[in-house]
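Margin note from the TA: students keep mixing up input and output lines. Inputs are the sequences; the output is the structure of the whole complex. Example:
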Amino acid sequence: MTVELDAVMHGFRRALPSVERHGANVLLTRARLCDFQRSLGPADCPKPHELDEASRDLDSEGWRRLDLLVGVAPLLTKAIQRSHELDPEPGQIWRDAFVGLALDMPLHTIVLLRESHPRREELARNWLLRLGIPIDGETPERSLERLERLDYARLMAAADAARDAADDRLQYLRKLQEKADLYAARDKY
Amino acid sequence: MSEATSAAAAAAAAERAERAERAARAEAARASIDAAIDDHWDAARAHWARSLQLGRPVVELEGPAIARIDLRDRQVFVSAAHVAGHGLETCLEAILAHEVGHHVKFPRSLGTLARMRILEKQLIPLEHFSALNLFTDLLINEHLGRRGLQTQLGRVYGSADHTAQTPATFLFTLAIYEELWQLPPASLVGPEGHEKLHGIYDGYRAEAHLVAQDLYRLGPNVFTQLIFYLSVLSRYLIQEVEENQHDHGGHSCQCAGEPDADDWASALTPGALEDEAIERAAREGWLAPDQIRRLRDKSLGARAAGLPGNLDGTGDQVTEIMANWYRRQAERYLLRPPPQRRLGEAIVPTTHEAWEPGDPIGTIDWGATLRERGPRFGAARPVRRETVADHEGLEVELWQPRSEIYLDVSGSMPDPREAENAMTLAAIILALGTLRAGGAARALLYSHTYTKSWRWCRSLRELSGFMLKYVGGGTEFPFDVLSESVEACRDKQPIRLVLTDRDFDFNVGKQPDAESVLRHASEAGPGFILVQAMADPMNVKQYRSWGMRVVDVPRLNDFPAVAAQLAHALFPEEGRPTP
């Protein structure tokens, strides 16, 4: 069963203001995650110590991301159930697609997600990939290609490298600026 | 007729025919596009506002770009040749909406454009380079893209063939659109454009993506967005291309209408939004510390470097702009009183009407009363008549102040066209004070030589323009001109003001008849006032003994404030000079 990407992103857009405003209540988020996992199958509910261990490295932004995912997850209940009908270990969903995703995307702050359409899309695509849900109207290859193009961590690294590599090219500009500085210096009397 | 001649005639005829056919085709395209505009104009405007009063676009046969605007008269132009030539008739709504966006939001006014240009020149001091059009296009197109015009805009930008000669800054901006609208790589940039950008930096797409993501989050402060955009774009400046005028092959619309002197003068003082943008850039680390320092420099010289033509010395508007700036500063020191209606002289009689008890007795017209009502009835029911002024504001003060200003423009002071010159500003304040009191002024600028504007003048624009002249040599006070002026003015002596520094003392020391000239000038007129920076107390005592009034200005920067106080003292509104 496929899912429309726009529907997931719309869910994020609706949930984000509330997550940003109220922050994440850790106990409540844990409870909601367990409830959701239980709705997929009672046996798959994480044990408290398992959840403690998996979420040990989540910072406050990480908990907010997790809260966002848990809030939007009911939209995908049917799709997850269909996708995992043949899965021998559907219990890994909470670990990999929820806590793991919240941990693995540290650059995606809630503010950034609210303001940036590409980052919401990246989060949605990553999530659906981890949940094993295909995107409506796309081949898996196309989805992966698009996800790679959106990879924020890679883009940031490339942009940082561009800034470092631009030093030589900026020499010319610096000379022009020094000349302009001389002009401005005439004001100092 | 020789064979060669007839062949040439035939070729010329063929060329004429071809030209005529081309012209007919262009005219047909113009007419067709002109008709199509009616179908799209309302929709184009609706992308920005429900009700928008803008003149109907003009369709040009040729034109420098697909479309352009003129911010002065709020006109939109569309080029028939470009639109038809690239097969963009189906994109008219996007083309028109884009141009409307320039008028309505980005940059909206020439004042904003002037501020953006000054900021841009501080970061990229190239006289003939400007990315402002590309920048405002980005903001406009993002808005229109969200409103469903993305495909049309993509077609417009994709219809050009970009080569290695296309400026890298333009190509990079196209790459931003590719990322913004999730278009296939190089679909707008083209293969050659991609090669060129790739040659500059192979990760250009990553930068384009991040600009597409972050630029719009930085709104609504357009200056923050501009600094961010320029901070990235400056890495794509290539000397050999960017030193020349930009040629975007008509695929970047053109924004006509240069800011006027008033816009530029206003832009020389940064506003709160610019300050906020600079601080944000510093916090976010978009620019190197030396660039931030440059942007934070609010001195007149730093800002004035961005005036048109100032970087390469071709600016013919600089004097006018700076004069305007000085006038604005002078206004700050002398607050303008609210305008008052003044009646002219009451000489026109009104019609007669019955006098009622309680009316002033002086208004009774006894002659008319006796004529109209006789001695008995008239005594009981007199008629009255008042006089009123025929025109407003014809009343003229009996005393009109006149100021004769001697301004030292020697090398110890900066050129007022390039940097803030406190003494020039003080002179303009004094001139403004004189004019406000209903008077006139004239000025002489001196250094080792002098120049004078000796006609009594009531225009601050003219006076301030003249006072921006600069000599910049030694200092020689023109005692001869002073003597001649005292003789020539006879019984209509002006207040004489000399704005100078301690060099004046040397001039007095060198001039054998200085004492007699200065004494004579002091005694002849209502005042001879020396406004001197860091005056020597001994010399001040001597000058005062000669009848001069001396105002000591402790520091050069105090000149404007001292001049303002002096103007208030000398020319209280509508009053006489204080004794």
